[in-house]
Amino acid sequence: MSNELNAASVRGPIDNLLPKIVLVIFALQPLMDIISFWQDELGRSNTLTLLLRFAVLFVVGLLGFALSHRKRVYIIAALICAALFAGHMYACHIKGYVDVVTDVTNFVRVVQMPLFAVSFITFIKRNNDCFDAVKRGLVLNFIIISAAVALSLITGTCRPTYNLSHLGVLGWFSTSNAQSAIMSMLTPIVVWLAYESKRYWLMIAAVAVSYSQLFFLGTRLAFLAICATTVGLTLVLLINRRADWKKVVIMFVGLALCIGLVKSGPMYRNQQVYSRVMDWKQDDANVMMNNVLDDMGIDLEKVDWDSLSEEETINILTPIYEFYSTDLCQRFGTENVIREYNFTHHVTDITNTRTHKITYCELLFKEHPTISRWFGMELERMLWCGTNYDVENDFHGVYFLYGAIGLGLMIAFLAYFVVIILAALKKDFRKYFTVEAGAFGISLCLALFNAYNTAGVLRRPNSSFYLSVLLASVYFLVKLKKYPETTGERAPLLKFGRRNKK
User: Fold this and answer.
1) Do 366 and 328 contact (CB within 8 A), yes or no?
2) How far is CA 384 from the centre of its chain?
3) Facing residues of 387 across strands?
4) Using an 8 Å Cβ cutoff, are 407 and 372 in contact?
5) Rounded Cα gap, residues 192 and 135, in angstroms
6) Nearest Cα to 442, choosing from 259, 200, 251?
7) Is the distance from CB of 158 to CB of 171 less than 8 angstroms?
8) Phi–psi pair at 494, nearest 5 degrees
9) Phi and psi angles of residue 240, each rounded to the nearest 5 degrees, phi first
10) What is the CB neighbour count within 10 angstroms for residue 30?
11) CB distance 325 to 351 below 8 Å
12) Are 216 and 226 in contact (CB under 8 A)?
């Protein structure tokens, strides 16, 4: 009994400090990214930021567990993670471990996202002001990131998004996919908060800074975030009858400028460079195939691939695979690689980085015991001749690293939040489909879309943090927030000037 009283006496002050603690946790995220960037630039180890990230994770998890009234949630989650990792370690042990420490470190990176999400839910339950701190934290990080990008341009230390073409503005950040995902998640919420401020200049500033950063990052998903923010927020505002046409126009002007300037932007220019390179490579591949086809008395333009035997097709394709996919052919054998690529002769497919890495891991899986399909394989096994073949798609990555069980658990965790959203909307659409919920919903959709198409979210400790925050925010908006009773009154679809303002 005395222990419970002591715990209660400690929790009171901590509860009051939670919003400030949340802000500190937020501010550390971009700062750690910037430190990592400069460590890499100076050729130093990233041990400092790695230890700092683990320290933040440990403190957040421990604080969440200590403050939670439902500790069994943490205990059950810990047991599930322990069972998954035990199965994973057993599968790796059968094949032969390469580096246990690196394997453990990588597993911690993956479990960070659900642990942060559960901990932030606990913080918000203990003090509802933590949700306001989350919104302030998102704006704070947006400002820090924007300032870092501006300083990198001023000082000439900006890293390009695309190293080969030297296009795009990444700033003082190291990973283009992760940074693109972070800005995609921040933009809808920052623009919505500026919209709610009722200051037109702030709305213009938020749209200009966020859209320009996404535009000059130059990734296709960053451009998608501009479109999703503009169209998505407008639809949410119209459905809620909260649209101010002047602010809506500001968003569409920003979108129109991005579309109008797209051909001079890094995304389009990099795609043009890539297309030209692929055309050159395809021409070279055609020459290689022609050399073989001439000996067979066949014209490349008239060849009927379906009529050729498997042996003939392999013979024709061998030169281009051994030239453009040398590493895979040396590692797994040319015939195995050609079969895994389903006998394609298109260089864009053979040289596509994401397909290349998935093919490597699929062939690697075939060398592992059956249990690896359930619990995954070691990350170090994906390193060969100094190249990392860890895949560039998060869900594929979770599958290869932690098997069907690991992927299933990750999908189940994310699906829980999707289910509670759909259940709430089905229960009372007008109550739960607010502009605030819409902004967070757009960010969450962009986060999941980035995770599906890149390796920039689920397994990246910097961007997975923001996904954790979004999931906790969704939980608050659906399960914890107290809403006013809905009425039959409906506001006009659009506000025209000051006459409609109270």
Assistant:
1) no
2) 25
3) 384
4) no
5) 11
6) 251
7) yes
8) -130, 145
9) -85, 0
10) 23
11) yes
12) no
Report how far residue 183's alpha carbon sits from residue 197's, in angstroms, rounded to the nearest whole number: 21
Residue that is written with structure tokens 């999931």 in the block: 471
Helices (H), 96-174: 100-126, 129-155
What one-letter code names the amino acid at 213? Q
Per DSSP, 392 falls in state S
Output the six-digit token pair for 52: 């700092």
Tell me the CA end-to-end span of the chain in Å, nearest whole number: 54
Q: What number of other Cβ atoms are within 10 A of residue 322's Cβ?
A: 16
DSSP 8-state assignment for residue 198: T
If you average pLDDT over every residue of the chain, what do you get? Answer: 91
Q: Count the neighbouring beta carbons within 10 Å of the beta carbon of residue 223.
A: 23
* Angle formed at CA 222 by CA 145 and CA 229, multiple of 5 degrees: 90
Tell me how long the chain is.
502
Q: Which two tokens stand for residue 283?
A: 């021409």
- The pLDDT of residue 497 is 47
Cα separation of 468 and 474, whole Å? 10
pLDDT class for 420, splitting at 50, 70, 90?
Answer: very high
365 near 357, Cβ under 8 Å?
no
Angstrom distance (rounded) from CA 406 to CA 399: 7
Q: What is the pLDDT of residues 11-58, one digit of tens each?
A: 578 889 999 999 999 999 999 999 999 999 998 888 888 899 999 999
Of residues 459, 21, 231, the one with CA closest to residue 467: 459
Beta bridge partners of 208: none
What's the DSSP call for residue 161? Answer: S
As beta bridge partners, residue 495 has 244
As a three-state string, the secondary structure of 18-68 is HHHHHHHHHHHHHHHHHHHHHHHHCCCCCHHHHHHHHHHHHHHHHHHHHHC
CB-CB neighbours of 350 under 10 Å:
24
The C-alpha atoms of residue 287 and residue 290 are separated, in whole angstroms, by: 5
Q: Which of 56-70, 133-147, 300-314 is predicted least confidently?
A: 300-314
Whether 192 and 233 have beta carbons less than 8 Å apart is answered as: yes
Token pair in block for residue 6: 């002591």
pLDDT in tens, 315-352: 999 999 999 999 999 999 999 999 999 999 999 999 99
Which tokens belong to 78? 């810990």
Distance CA(413)–CA(117), nearest Å, equals: 10
Using CB atoms within 10 Å of the CB of residue 433, give its burial: 0 to 12 exposed, 13 to 18 middle, 19+ buried: middle
Helix, strand, coil distribution of the chain in percent, nearest 5: 80, 0, 20
Q: What is the mean pLDDT of residues 245-249?
A: 95
